[in-house]
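Annotators were shown the component list below and the corresponding predicted structure, then asked to write short factual statements about the assembly.
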Amino acid sequence: MDKKERIYKTLSQIVGDEKWVSNSPVDCWAYSYDMTYKRPQMPNYVVLPKTPEEIQSILRLANAEKMPVVPFTAGTNIGGLCVPEQGGILMDLKRMDEIIEINEEVRFAVIEPGVSQAQFAQELFKRGYRFGWPVGPPSASVLACAIHHGIGGMSGRYGLNSNHITGMEVVRPTGEILMCGSPAIRRDSWQSCMPLPRFDGLFTGTLGTTGVVTKLGVFIPPVPDYVHIGTFAAENLTDMEMFMRTFSKYEYADDLTAISWWLSQVPIPYPYVEKPKGAPEWTGYCTLYAFTEKELENKVDVFNKVIKDLGKKGNTIKATDVPEESKKGRTQLPSQIVGSTKNYCKMGGGGIAWPGTFTPSNRWVAVYNLWKEIYTKKAKIALSPSTRVTMYRGCHYGMLRLMTPFPRDRPEEEANAAWCIREAAKVLIDAGGIPYKPPTDFAREINKRADPGWIDLICDIKDMLDPNGIMNPGKWGVR
Amino acid sequence: MGRKVIQMADNFKDLKWYSQFFRKCSKCGTCKSAYSYGPPPTNASICPQGDYFKLDSYYGSRAKSFLGQAILENRVDLTDPAVQEDMQKAVFSCTVCGGCQTQCQLDYKPWIIDYIEEMRHNLVNRGIGPTKAEKIYQDKVIKDHNPYGETHSSRFNWLKDVRDLKTDGNTVYFAGCTASYRRTEIAKSTASVLTKLGEDWGVMGENEYCCGSPLLRAGLREEPQKLAEHNVDYLNDHGFKTIVTACAGCYKVLAKEYEKWWGLKLKAKVLHTAEYLEEKMKKGELKLSNVPATVTYHDPCHMGRHMNHYEVDMDGKKQWKGSYIQIDKPGLYETPRNVLKAIPGIQFKEMYRNRDNSYCCGAGGGIKASYPDVALETAKTRIKEAEGLDSVQKMVTPCPFCVTNLGDASRALGSKVEVVDLIQLVDQALKK
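Structure shown to annotators:
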């Protein structure tokens, strides 16, 4: 029996049925690329485990064979994170789709990797709870979003979805199972990662290179009874940022976001078009939730007061009135329309990528101006500077990202978009911003600028956890 | 009898043409499940093929976009017999139910059904399709004008129990193969209803050929065209005013596809029995008596979402070239429900997945013959969904093929849910 056949048979034995394993190029092709500009690279095998024990066995096999393993849930990230760099075994976790617990008394839930945003939303809503729903597809994995520092509709107030993690079960690259946070001490107690050492950090933001997270505990706040969506506009990002910085100090808004004119179009104009004269370059919204009318009134009053006070100082920020229908897109998440990237890539033609970054708000203006220069002046084909900025927990790690659609079937235009995105990432990192869920080309740029001690630590940790370098190799560009 | 219809240009497009749309699939995976924010948010599985096989190469229209590119750009070696086998399985084990299509939000959406069938056609031309089971029933259709291997002369044997053969009248009942040979109780009920309503109706007799649906669904083009030309010629030559069919598959082909693909226009109005009955109901001509039963309704894909009409901006006058605008005419969702709810004594309960988000019975797209396990497991899921509704006794659907597969599943499960055709229930309720 040749190696290919032997591995196939062993994988089949591990998961109990040949149905859950494939080494067919037809099946592997469907895991070879995603919505980004990343070139297709196929795995050699796809396997769909059902239990952590099966994952243990797969990882032990991969170590014995020195074969890469790529964890996969829905393949909907905008970073090519599940596209295998070096082939190997793609571990599709969609069969692990159980919501294990929703604890309404102390407000946490425990989920498996295959639980989708749609599935989780349905179950939480029934019980009056919510989560930080991203603007990703309803099919996207809640767990994958959270462990990769995904953002959501509560990030303005509660921080990133990774801030909501209360515990983890992880299969280490060498096959051992460990618990992080409170379940490490008592298996059924998922209330918090603290006060223990934050070992969950070893598996968070690491792009599947340090292990396979098989269970995740997350905080679930209740759905408040009242909501107001405040909308506003400013002529430039300087004024917009000042408003957002000022208003964010109250931490009243669950979501405090602004978008450039090009992103406010549905869909993003492709290629670039001039903004009409007189149209504000920036529009924004904030979601204000409250449990009493009085609480909501107070938040709305403060929102209006901040706008008024800044206006007196010459800031162009103004409250705006937008149709109720368009406001729904801010709170009615997960959303098929938003999550399908319809609003983003429909006109461009199927492809989308971005420099998606965490950047303090006081750098937004400088970076945005550089981005506009790249996208509208330096690019072979001018592209829309369709930029989004969002405050997280105040302003110290706000989001700055540039949604970039492109046609998948016109290689020259795809290459143009990829060039713009890479150049935008470089000026961003130089300015102190950091891309999240970084594709490999971004990771290389990050590492070039990184503190050597930080690189050494990542390498040491990677070597310690994954001595054969099997876990999603190449993604962090350090091993 | 000479053919009066001049053959129009072939309206089928090739895979290269469809690539302008399937390459617009962003791979977001929205097609994998039926989700709506609501409120409250609802989520349910929608893709029978993906639910069964789980691999992303099988899940929704996203998978089909991957596969189309692989075929068109030679991304996999389709000269390798093992790859051929895998590609055939991935493309031909889809029920082509369109559940993914109704979820998609991109410009790919309007084309998904036709594109999947074109992929099959492409593979047929390469010798990678049809499946063995499809080949068997295709040969039967070509030889005997039905996929069941029954003699053509016995097509209207069921009618002998009802009345003498009559081949003229204002209305013609296009019985279709499944009702004629396998679900004769549906054919008999249809005949009974037409008679009770005083309709001047006939059948095509030996001139009724298979509508062509089983061949079209499997990626064939020339063979179903011959059937279409035959049926259209006969129907147009005989002056019928109305064509009534109780089969969702025949309905889609007669009402939409003959003209869409071959420019074969039927002079008579095509009505599904549900539409026919609703018309009668609106005129006050449907006097229904009490049928005490708690029922739910299953939407046949070919009558529901396959009949959705999509507005597309092909020349870019409204949005941009090739952009999907909206569904400007929905399929038959409310009509059969209106008829069902009009029967006194009926307690109607809606299944969780309904209308555009209905879950396929599992039989379509050649799956019942080629992948019977997929078909049965899918139908079991649907029966279980009905069982989840309190005290539902019957699952009603207006399609003999859905009745067959769902009935098989109900028996396999030992379920108390009885699967019946809408026309049977109406026949029961209709006063003589």
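Statements collected:
1. The mean pLDDT of chain B is 96.
2. The longest strand of chain B covers residues 323-329.
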